[in-house]
Amino acid sequence: MTERARKISASIIFMLGFTQFYSFLSAAYGYFASEEGYDFIWNYWVIGLFMLLLVGAGFLLLKVIRLESQRLLSSLVL
Fold first, then answer.
1. Which pLDDT band holds residue 60 (cuts at 50, 70, 90)?
2. Quick check: 54 and 9 in contact, CB under 8 A?
3. What is the pLDDT of residue 71?
4. Which of 21, 30, 39, 66 counts the highest number of beta carbons within 10 A?
5. What is the dihedral of CA 75, 66, 47, 43, to 10 degrees?
6. How far apart are CA 21 and CA 51, in angstroms?
């Protein structure tokens, strides 16, 4: 993958990660702001985990990775 394509894909992955972060925060806000029975179901935890994986993979692609073997690790995370 060329340097430019790697940076573009890392930026897109970061963008998706922050979108998931917003979804997770809105679910958490709904849980704590609700006065009636609002369940924080397992789907919201999956959204939070997916957010962490996307942001981590984007960071690995953008800043850390210089070797091809380490790029494989971030591809496996995705």
1. confident
2. no
3. 63
4. 21
5. 40
6. 6
HEC per residue, the chain? CCHHHHHHHHHHHHHHHHHHHHHHHHHHHHHHHCCCCCCCCHHHHHHHHHHHHHHHHHHHHHHHCCCHHHHHHHHHHC
8 A C-beta contact, residue 64 and residue 10: no
Which residue reads 């380490």 in tokens?
70
Q: Exposure pattern of 24-41 as b/e (b: 16+ CB <10 Å)?
A: beebeeeeeeeeeeeeee
Please give the pLDDT value at position 73: 63
Tell me how far apart the alpha carbons of residues 41 and 60 are, in angstroms, rounded to a whole number.
Answer: 30
